[in-house]
Amino acid sequence: MFITNILLKKAKSKNILVLMESAVSGHQFTSIRERLADKLELQRFDPYIQRMCLYRERKRVRSLN
């Protein structure tokens, strides 16, 4: 490996943008979490069913600065 490859390598970001999806209705929104943290699961108000429900992390969207 050349020294130039080591010097030009990009640093990984600390946070990532993830897509959250409702376990009941399929409503989606994006959230930010740390790269090394576990997958998110949280309760939030779902506008489709007008109740609180469980949201799970569905997929990673992109890296953030």
Automatic annotation (TrEMBL):
Which Gene Ontology terms of cellular component type are present? mitochondrion; ribonucleoprotein complex; ribosome
> Could you provide one GO biological process annotation from this protein's UniProt record?
translation
- In terms of superkingdom, the source organism counts as Eukaryota
Q: What is its main location?
A: mitochondrion
Q: Which UniProt keywords apply?
A: Mitochondrion, Ribonucleoprotein, Ribosomal protein, Transit peptide
Q: Which InterPro entries match?
A: Mitoribosomal_protein_bL33 (IPR052008), Ribosomal_bL33_sf (IPR038584), Ribosomal_zn-bd (IPR011332)
Which compartment or compartments is the protein found in? Mitochondrion
Family as reported in the entry's similarity comment: Belongs to the bacterial ribosomal protein bL33 family.
Note the subunit structure.
Component of the mitochondrial ribosome large subunit (39S) which comprises a 16S rRNA and about 50 distinct proteins.
Q: What is this protein called?
A: Large ribosomal subunit protein bL33m
Record the organism: Anopheles dirus
Provide the taxonomic classification.
Eukaryota, Metazoa, Ecdysozoa, Arthropoda, Hexapoda
